C-alpha cells in the first residue's frame, strides 16, 4: 500500500489527534450495551506479499490465514468482480465467525466515479458479494484522490441509492473533504444519517485523514505501517484510543493492518491483538508467525 508513503517517516508526527467533538455524541446515542465485537486482519493473504507467515508446505493460504485471523480486508475485489462460485469458495473454506470486509469494485469509485453507470456496477458487485452470507462484514468504498467536493451530488445520490441491508464504509481522500469545515460537516452528517461508516486512515503522508470523526457505532481503521520502528508505538496509541471509545460506548472495532512493504503485517497484527486483549480483557486469538518478535526493540 503506497498511498501516504514518505521517504523519512522519522520526521512525521504520528500523534493521534483529539476526538472530533461529535464522536462522543455519536457513540453515546448509538450504544446498546452489547459486548464489543472486534475484528482484526491484514489486507491480503497472498504468500508473496506476506513472507514467513505461512508454515512451509501450506497449500491453501486462505484456509490457514483464517485459522489465525478472524477477518480479512479483501482488497482483491477492488480490481474485479469475481465469478459467483469464487465467493462461495471463500465462504465455505473459512471457519464460523470469520468475516470478509471487501473493497468495492474500482468501476464504481475510479472508472465510473459514482455516475449512473456506477450504480449498475454496484448492483452487479452486490449480487455476488452477497454470497458471502453471514461472513460478509462491512463493505468499504474508497474514492480516488482527485474525487473532490464538486462531486457532492453524486455522493448524495449514491448514498441514497445504496441498499441499507448491506453495511457500508466510505473513504474519501481528496483533502478538501476535511480541510473545508463546511464541506466536512455536510459529509459527516450525510454519512451519519444514512448509517454509513466514515473510515479512518492512519498513514504517514496524509495526516488529514485522521479526522477522528465516527459517524456510527463502528470504528473502521486502516492502519498503514511505515516499515519503521514507530509502527509499534503507533499501535499502542491506537489501543488507548479504542479503549477510550469503548468506554464511551463503541461496540464495533474493525482494524486492518497494512505496511508500505507487506513484510511484517502479521507480526504487527499479532502485537496489536496481544495488547488489545490485555487492555480490553478480550480473548482474540493471537496470530502465529515465524517472524522473530520485535517487541524488545521498542521497550
Automatic annotation (TrEMBL):
<dbReference type="Pfam" id="PF01904">
    <property type="entry name" value="DUF72"/>
</dbReference>
<protein>
    <recommendedName>
        <fullName>DUF72 domain-containing protein</fullName>
    </recommendedName>
</protein>
<dbReference type="InterPro" id="IPR002763">
    <property type="entry name" value="DUF72"/>
</dbReference>
<dbReference type="InterPro" id="IPR036520">
    <property type="entry name" value="UPF0759_sf"/>
</dbReference>
